[in-house]
Amino acid sequence: MQSVVLKGTKDGYELILKETASIREILVDLKQLLEDLSEESKKSSNKLSLNVQLGNRLMSDSAKNDIIKLVDEFDNLEIGSFLTNVITKEESQKIMAQNNVDVMSRTIRNGQEVNVEGDVLFFGKIHEGGKLFATGNIYNMGIVEGIVQAGFPDDESKLIIGNLHTAQQVRVGEQYDIVSDKPIEDSEKTVVYVNDLHVLSYGKIKNLKEINPKFFNRIGGIE
């Protein structure tokens, strides 16, 4: 069986690599396939982009570079992206971190910055000048007198839930408010989010279904 198969898709073409084939076998078969494909595509003035489907295998950066170099030998062909059904250990750890809730009970003092991967349930105290940044959502059960940011650095789909009326700043993604300029209600049921106009907004937990339906469904709903 040939180690590389060309398949047409609605988005263009895919190079499907045999999962058990060595990179040497792949390069030999790929060169012949590319020579034929290059001749056929010369009629077009645009470059033909090829996605490489790796299937259930991981490929080293070195092997990927060998494939890219081979394709670059043909002026009218280019690699679009490498696709795979599997992920590295590092990627899996990052996904797990982003889907876990980090329970934190600590004091963040002036000048300190704490960064969290995923969601955080905060029971501590953030002094004025202290910063808590989370890539996920922030659930505040403590005291915030500093700066909190959910969706760090630019994810506007995240939320901050809890009492934030003593905070310096609240941020979701790239949107932020200075609380002294725009006071927040003294309530542990506050929800901070970015609305459809990309403006920071404030709601209540009871309206969470309307504020963020995906998040509401993920946590099983709150009535």
Radius of gyration: 25 Å
The total of beta strands comes to 18
What is the share of helical residues?
10-25%
Give start-end ranges of low-pLDDT stretches.
none
Sheet with most strands: 6 strands, mixed
Indicate how many domains the architecture comprises: 2
Specify the overall morphology.
elongated
Protein name: Probable septum site-determining protein MinC
Subunit structure: Interacts with MinD and FtsZ.
Keywords: Cell cycle, Cell division, Coiled coil, Septation
Coiled coil: 20-47
How would you briefly describe this protein structure?
Cell division inhibitor that blocks the formation of polar Z ring septums. Rapidly oscillates between the poles of the cell to destabilize FtsZ filaments that have formed before they mature into polar Z rings. Prevents FtsZ polymerization. This protein has 223 residues and is of the alpha/beta class. Helices cover 23% and strands 34% of the residues.
Write up what this structure looks like.
It comes from Apilactobacillus apinorum. Residues 104-194 form the Septum formation inhibitor MinC C-terminal domain. InterPro entries: CAP/MinC_C, MinC, MinC_C_sf, MinC_N_1, Septum_form_inhib_MinC_C. Cell division inhibitor that blocks the formation of polar Z ring septums. Rapidly oscillates between the poles of the cell to destabilize FtsZ filaments that have formed before they mature into polar Z rings. Prevents FtsZ polymerization. Interacts with MinD and FtsZ. The protein is an alpha/beta fold and 223 residues long. It has two domains: 4-83; 96-218, Pectate Lyase C-like (3 Solenoid), CATH 2.160.20. Helices cover 23% and strands 34% of the residues. It contains five helices and 18 strands. It has helices spanning 23-41, 61-72, 89-98, 208-211, 213-218; strands at 4-9, 12-17, 48-53, 77-83, 101-104, 107-108, 113-116, 119-122, 125-126, 131-134, 138-140, 143-144, 147-150, 160-162, 169-172, 175-178, 190-194, 200-204. It has a six-stranded mixed beta sheet with strand order 5-8-11-14-17-18, with no helix packed on it. Helix 1 (23-41) runs parallel beside helix 2 (61-72). The protein is elongated. The mean pLDDT is 87.
